Amino acid sequence: MSFSLQSKKMFPANHKTVFVLDHTPYFGISCENPIEFEFLKGRSPSFIPMTPISKTLWTSSVESAIEYCRIVWDLFPTGKLVRFFASDTVAHILNSWTPTQQSISHIMNGYALIGVPPAPPSLRSTPPPDYTVLHGLRAAVEGLCEPTEYQLDKFKSDGGQIINRCRVICITSARDNESMNRLEEIFLTVLNQQNKVVAGNENLLPIHHCHLVIINTFPVNMESSVNNHPPKNLSPILTTEVHSIKAPLIPNKLSTLILDHYDLASTTVTGIPMKEEQNASSSANYDVEIFHASTAHTAIFKSNASDSAAIRTIKEGLEYETVTLKWCTPRGMTGNELQNCTSVHRITPVDVNSRPSLCLINFLLGGRSVMLEMPRKAGGKITSHLLVAHGGEIFIHTLCTARSVLEDPPSVSEGCGGRVTDYRIPDFGMLIKQNTLLPIKIKTPGDGLKPLDKVRERLNRHTKYWPLTISSTLIFNLKQYIDPLPALIVKEKLTDDEVFVCNKVIYNLIALESKMEPLHPQNIGQRVKGQKREEQYKAMWNELENFLKNNLHSDNHKLVYQCLLDCHKFNFDDDKGSEKVDLDEALNQLDNIGPSKDENAQRASVIRATTDSPMSPPPLANITPAFSRQGSTKGSIYNSQRTLYEIFRHMQEKGQNNRPEFAGRQGGSLIAKLYPNLKTDDRDNRGENAMVVE
Q1: Are residues 32 and 220 in contact, defined by beta-carbon separation less than 8 angstroms?
Q2: Fewer beta carbons within 10 angstroms: which end of the chain, N or C?
Q3: 195 and 44 in contact (C-beta within 8 Å)?
Q4: Cβ distance 568 to 580 under 8 Å?
Q5: Cα(385)–Cα(364) distance, integer angstroms
Q6: DSSP string spanning 340-387?
Q7: Separation of alpha carbons 627 and 611, rounded Å
Q8: CB 335 within 8 A of CB 247
Q9: Cα 493 to Cα 554: distance, rounded to the nearest angstrom
Q10: Average pLDDT along the chain
């Protein structure tokens, strides 16, 4: 049975957990893990050491299960319920779902009543007692069908179906894999039978899904034939997993499982200064591990990946990760020193009986607070968490490591981590102005693309190639050389005159390179600093080629790109002579694209371009008296030899290609209605209609 993420959060499997402990005679044997006791500081010659003792399998199972419950109830005072069953010849029920029986003292009293596992039966006893863990598993399934107070309240308030998801943790010992498989199949059979029994009972709930965790344990000096297997779906309502471990390692295994069962995380507070117990004048640094909700680490995991990876380590001897944070100088917590926090969660120490844990807990309960620091790989550190007690309970606060909303907003030139960057801020402001949107009304539904779609296409053209920083571009820093090519090439269509202007820019750059004149960027970035002229031109040509190649929107755009390819050979592995077109050819093309000149004027311009210095005065041929200019209607529209009427006619003919004629001027019988949409009802219904304000 598959459940949505929402249903898993509303009805989690950890709401109802059942421990089934094997109480058969086999669990009365020793773990074979001796514990030595020595209470005297010095040994006299007559000292007789105590005989080492060892826990039984039953003691290890009970202690591990109780520690599991302690962590759960410390972090979740309500809402997470745990029941205990012991199984030998019958099932022993130690508590119920009632909140008053959800305590360690109640569970320990129940274990004291049932006592240690019984002795092995004698061979003469007839019939032999039926010692098996199946009695406890059957009772556990019946207990899982009983509704809790939360489920009853949920049913009364919502009036809908309650999804009964639960978990069973069984600590037992099996002979081999076949016996373990048979145990899983029997549990599934019992589960299906119980769902059929409760189908017509309004006071019981069917089990929609059960997670069965079997821990197969055995003494240290033995080896088990049972293999581990990860969670697998035995049926739509049952998922099983098996862990085969030695008895002393049951606490470690349950510590790993509890993190996944309750979505917890581990934090190790390192560098805690404590005075030595034996020498009060000296101190040493200790570490304390705590458990808490995993969301307390979300902020630091979303930060720099290298920094978060440096503080995550596998716990020694265990299977889970822990985040190591450094102790910071503590201080009292008052109202004036409250920190900006993003989340807060309860904590509990992993080793509650160790001296460092007791010292840290008493220190916090005394009204002090502890700041936790996260070191950075690049150097420095940042305060990421705060440990403080509220009302006798200890919490971990996740501090806001980003900029606070109470601070001044960052500068536009400020990058990640507060570093100053060389963003193209003026160019970005111009890009915003060129793509400003205003709401308009669409004329008719069948006008082709919607205005919003047109705007998206326009913005896509403008940002096909748009470097963010000054140091990552060269051509946009050479505006005095390449303008207006960048503004024209991003248009949807280019006219013939605009193609002429773009080609002229390319020819001018060819002429500059031929004379080896240095390029002077307006904004000095890291990229062009200290570069030679050849390297500058090489970087400029490569970037210009990439810019034009990303803006091939029409045939005229392709003509500009082809002009660049024809004028400059993009092959820097050949000798220097094959990189550029012939000087005379480039200069002739540059002279010929303007108004027609006679042969002598062209030759003079070529000679002057190759001999004059940058400081040379303009040629006298260009300084022509106004009265000596005679009419020639060829060339640019800005040529002074053309009359005002000719210029007006040229602009009118040019505009007819791009602009539809007004309806009232197309013929004498046509009438254009002014404001046709003035009285429509959808004046405010603008929706996705927008236009760009040029």
Answers
A1: yes
A2: C
A3: no
A4: yes
A5: 14
A6: -EEEEEE-EESSTTSHHHHHHHHHHHTTEEEEEEEE-TTS-EEEEEEE
A7: 31
A8: no
A9: 6
A10: 79
Q: Which phi and psi angles does 517 have, rounded to 5°?
A: -80, 140
- Residue 629 amino acid letter: R
Which positions ≥6 away from 24 have C-beta within 8 Å?
Answer: 87, 88, 117, 118, 131, 132, 133
* Type of residue at 634: K
DSSP string, 378-425: TS-EEEEEEEEEETTEEEEEEE--S--TTSPPPPTTB-GGG-B--B-H
- Phi and psi at 540, nearest 5°, equal -65, -45
The DSSP code sequence of 616-669 is PPPPGGG---GGG------S-TT-TTS-HHHHHHHHHHHHHTTSPPPGGGS-TT
Q: Which ranges in 145-249 belong to alpha helices (H)? A: 149-158, 177-197
- Evaluate whether 401 touches 303 at the Cβ level (below 8 Å): yes
| DSSP string of 572-619, one letter each residue | TTS-GGGSB--HHHHHHHHHHTSS---HHHHHHHHHHHHH--TTPPPP
Answer yes or no: are the C-beta atoms of 397 and 343 closer than 8 Å: yes
Quote the CA–CA distance of 205 and 143 in Å, as a whole number: 10
Q: Which of the four pLDDT bands, split at 50, 70 and 90, describes residue 410?
A: low
Angle between helices 57-75 and 104-114 (to 10 degrees): 160
Most confident of 30-39, 204-213, 299-308, 668-677: 204-213
- Amino acid making up residue 689: N
Reading the block at residue 474, the tokens are 């060269």
Average pLDDT over residues 573-597: 48
Cα 102 to the chain's mean position, in Å?
A: 38
Q: Which of 244, 202, 408, 374 is nearest to 296 (CA)?
A: 374
Q: What is the pLDDT of residues 216-275, one digit of tens each?
A: 999 999 998 999 999 999 999 999 999 999 999 999 999 999 999 999 999 999 988 877
